């Protein structure tokens, strides 16, 4: 599925729709360059789960847990991961195979740890269509 976003609100709303339809045990891997809207998708996703928490990128903590919605949400940002073994130390397997949903920004850095099935969200800019334009491709792997 391909969605187009022409502003941050569109990107947020796409995330919200994904969150509304998310089920326990699902993993969503978010790919894209710096500044494309990975965290905005995550914020909308949290809202779709019924959360009012402030959601921001867990760049320095690697993971933030949210449990105020209909399902727990584990939001990973592995951009600064130094060693893949760090993921085991923070309880990655318990979260990824648990009863919540996982969102992983920069998932390409830990591909060998990803579950067999997940939803891939690829966000790309196209400056010819404007600085706020995003093409968001969503596919089940």
Q: How would you describe the overall organization of this protein?
A:
This protein has a single domain (2-140), classed as Rossmann fold. The protein has 141 residues and is of the alpha/beta class. The model has no long low-confidence stretch (mean pLDDT 91). It has helices at 8-21, 38-48, 85-89, 92-96; strands spanning 2-5, 27-31, 63-66, 73-77, 101-105, 119-125, 134-140. It is globular, with a radius of gyration of 14 Å. Helix 1 (8-21) crosses helix 2 (38-48). It contains 4 helices and 7 strands. Strands 1-7-6-2-5-4-3 form a 7-stranded mixed beta sheet.
N-to-C terminal Cα separation, in Å?
12 Å
**SS summary, helix count:** 4
The CATH topology annotation reads as: Rossmann fold
CATH superfamily assignment? P-loop containing nucleotide triphosphate hydrolases
Radius of gyration computed on alpha carbons: 14 Å
CATH class categorisation: Alpha Beta
**Total count of strands:** 7
Helix share bin: 10-25%
The strand line-up of the biggest sheet is 1-7-6-2-5-4-3
- Overall shape: it is globular
* Main pleated sheet: 7 strands, mixed
SSE string, helices as H and strands as E: EHEHEEHHEEE
Q: Any idea how many domains?
A: 1
